[in-house]
Amino acid sequence: TAGTAVNLLFPEIPLALALACLMAAVPGSLLPVPLALAAIVLLITGISATEAIPVFIPVIVAYSITHGLGLLGQGSAKEQNQKAN
User: Fold this and answer.
1) CA-to-CA distance for 22 and 8, rounded, in angstroms?
2) Under a CB-based contact definition with an 8 Å cutoff, are residues 18 and 47 in contact?
3) How far apart are CA 17 and CA 53, in angstroms?
4) For the residues 6-28, what does the mean pLDDT come to?
């Protein structure tokens, strides 16, 4: 899996943490519920609360890259429709 590959490339990253981060980030980049997916992965893997933040960060980054933040002034759908007409 991708978590194992990350652990082999960067041995200082624990295997359980790499697996959990990628288990949450890959579906989190595709589905519109990234925080819920991260919470589900934390519950499934049993990662402690002290290691929860490194699981949430890749999910938020992956979601932001694929879906965008909407901060660059793309405008609302209503404004875009008015410009098109």
Assistant:
1) 14
2) no
3) 11
4) 92
